[in-house]
Specification:
Blueprint lengths: L7 H14 L3 H18 L2 H5 L17 H12 L3
Length: 81
């Protein structure tokens, strides 16, 4: 058995959700905990966002270190009429 403390706002949201969905508080908490534990054990934060790190769609892996050079080049091109 587990006892947990909720704020009054959390308790209200949980009660509303349970009433709308015809579920008991215990059912909702058990399902939420099961999903949380399954999700936590499946992938790390890095794995979740791995496709967002690095070169992205540009395929340029040095964009963060060469931004000043690229900016200078773009400004020179724009103002060298």
């Amino acid at each position: 058995m587990l006892t947990t403390r909720l704020t009054s706002a959390e308790e209200k949201k949980l009660a509303e959700y349970c009433e709308q969905n015809g579920l008991s508080k215990s059912q909702v908490v058990k399902e939420a905990l099961a999903q949380y534990l399954t999700k936590k054990s499946e992938v790390s934060a890095y794995e979740t966002g791995q496709d967002l790190f690095g070169a992205a769609s540009s395929n340029e892996t040095d964009r963060s270190t060469t931004y000043k050079q690229r900016l200078r080049k773009m400004l020179n091109e724009k103002h060298s009429h």
